[in-house]
Amino acid sequence: MADFSLADLETIIHQRAHSGDAESWTAKLFAKGIDKAAQKLGEEAVETVIAAIRGDRQALVSESADLLYHWLVVLGIAGVPLDDVLKELEGRTSRSGIAEKAARSTD
Ligand SMILES: N=c1c2ncn([C@@H]3O[C@H](COP(=O)(O)OP(=O)(O)OP(=O)(O)O)[C@@H](O)[C@H]3O)c2ncn1[C@@H]1O[C@H](COP(=O)(O)O)[C@@H](O)[C@H]1O
User: What does the record give under GO molecular function (predicted)?
Assistant: First the structure.
């Protein structure tokens, strides 16, 4: 298990977005705004799909990392905390009863 989470990356993105560092890709995307960031997110999504269809495992890992990074940038620019998305997923899990079934199966 990696010692790194999406929450860690979200924190880094927030720090870099307001760093004023001219070399920061994150700061550049935040300065360009939601249209450019969302466009990049779409490009990375397409590249991820292509890697998956080709069965290129290494590219799928790399493109997925690009995708998740740009997704968090879009959330950041839009002012949506990662936690809101996780709560939405958590709500869907509890509504489906899957979490309770998984917990019972490990008892
Ligand atoms: N995870 C990432 C990450 N993934 C992808 N990218 C950048 O996303 C950019 C876009 O990728 P592309 O392949 O599309 O590059 P490109 O073709 O040059 O882009 P175009 O200008 O042509 O559209 C590249 O510059 C990548 O470096 C990332 N940039 C930053 N991070 C994380 O954010 C942190 C802060 O980065 P900076 O803001 O750059 O300091 C880093 O330490 C990383 O943890």
Answer: phosphoribosyl-ATP diphosphatase activity
The reply to whether 101 falls in a domain is no
| Residues 60-90: tens digit of each pLDDT | 999 999 999 999 999 999 999 999 999 999 9
Question: Which residue's alpha carbon is nearest to atom 6 within ligand 1?
Answer: 66
We report the CATH number of the domain holding residue 34 as 1.10.287.1080
Distance (Å, rounded) from C-alpha 102 to C-alpha 72?
29
Q: Is 24 in the pocket of ligand 1 (CB under 6 A)?
A: yes
In a domain, 103, yes or no: no
- Residue 3 inside a domain? The answer is no
Residue 39 Cβ < 6 Å to ligand 1: no
